[in-house]
């Protein structure tokens, strides 16, 4: 089975408080985007899972990979065959685009289908949250307003059909753990869900990603990228997640190589862009 595990961007990201168990409570709009890791899952005659990857270098060991963790989780609860998993990694690690979480969720969905477990999406989400706070989102994989630690999900209108998205990927790795350690939870003075539903003209000066303060202070070029996207005509620009990818959304098709010296990915958002 071949799976296309897509990335996501955050339209706004507020860190409102920290729980006693160390998890942070958030508010965000998760938006799936057509930028993919590719996963192949096939039954194997080996005694244990086989995992290989190509593409972007993954510095963690095999057992720490979220595809492998997803397999181990399914094996713990269900009688499933041994699989060989091949990952072609294209979504940069430490970019805030959710690539690892997506890989985990799509591996769960793939094994569910191949092994004919007949788990519904609610049951898959209950498994996915054991792998990471962002993982349940990728089960339904639709535009979603997220609260809690990221597991309280409510589908929301996709307002970006027909718009152009540019993602700028600097060669910077930002540790999610480090980013959370440097964030000061603060309840916003606006309702993200309401502003998202309002006119685009309100986005730029209202919707915030609270991780930007830390990331921009440490890496000034990230702030420059965001400002340049606005100068190039984006009606909204932001860092995604805890960084380091910066995206801009445009009413028109921007030029290629929009921000010189950085890797820029351009795409048009259409109704068939997203895989459920």
Short précis:
The chain has 276 residues and is of the alpha+beta class.
Structural class of the secondary structure composition? alpha+beta
Instruction: Enumerate the spans where pLDDT stays under 50 for 5 or more consecutive residues.
Output: none
Please bin the fraction of helical residues.
25-40%
Note the beta-strand portion: 25-35%
State the end-to-end distance: 16 Å
Indicate the CATH topology of the largest domain: Ribosomal Protein S5, domain 2
Give the overall silhouette. globular
Give the tally of β-strands. 10
CATH class of the largest domain: Alpha Beta
By CATH, the architecture of the largest domain is named 2-Layer Sandwich
- Number of folding domains? 2
- Rg of Cα set: 18 Å
Let me know the average pLDDT.
95
Q: H/E series, N to C?
A: EEEHEHHHEEEHHHHHEEE
Helical stretch tally: 9
Please give the largest β-sheet.
Answer: 6 strands, mixed
If you had to describe this structure to a student in words, what would you say it looks like?
This protein is of the alpha+beta class and 276 residues long. The chain is 27% helix and 29% strand. It contains 9 helices and 10 strands. The strands form 2 sheets. Strands 1, 2, 3, 4, 5 and 6 form a 6-stranded mixed beta sheet that branches. Strand 1 (2-18) and strand 2 form a beta hairpin. Helix 1 (66-77) runs parallel beside helix 2. The model has no long low-confidence stretch (mean pLDDT 95).
């Amino acid at each position: 089975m071949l799976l296309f595990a897509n990335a996501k961007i955050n339209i706004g990201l507020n860190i409102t408080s920290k729980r006693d168990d160390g998890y942070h409570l958030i508010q965000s709009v998760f938006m799936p985007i057509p930028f993919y890791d590719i996963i192949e899952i096939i039954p194997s005659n080996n005694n244990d899972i086989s995992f290989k990857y190509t593409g972007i270098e993954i510095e963690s060991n095999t057992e720490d990979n979220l595809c492998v963790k997803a397999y181990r989780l399914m094996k713990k609860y269900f009688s499933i065959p041994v699989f060989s998993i091949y990952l072609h990694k294209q979504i940069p690690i430490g970019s805030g685009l959710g690539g690892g979480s997506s890989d985990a969720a799509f591996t769960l969905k793939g094994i569910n289908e191949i092994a004919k477990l007949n788990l519904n999406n609610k049951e898959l989400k209950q498994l996915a949250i054991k792998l990471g706070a962002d993982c349940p989102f990728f089960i339904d994989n639709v535009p979603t307003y997220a609260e809690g630690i990221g597991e309280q999900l409510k589908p929301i209108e996709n307002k970006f059909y027909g718009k152009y998205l540019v993602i700028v990927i600097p060669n910077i790795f930002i540790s999610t753990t480090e980013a959370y350690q440097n964030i000061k939870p603060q309840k916003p003075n606006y309702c993200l869900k309401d502003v998202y539903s309002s006119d685009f003209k309100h986005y730029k000066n209202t919707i915030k990603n609270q991780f930007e303060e830390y990331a921009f202070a440490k890496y000034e070029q990230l702030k420059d990228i965001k400002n340049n996207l606005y100068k190039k005509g984006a009606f909204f620009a932001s860092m995604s997640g805890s960084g380091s990818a910066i995206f801009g959304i445009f009413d028109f098709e921007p030029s290629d190589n929009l921000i010189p010296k950085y890797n820029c990915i351009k795409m048009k958002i259409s109704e068939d862009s997203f895989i459920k």
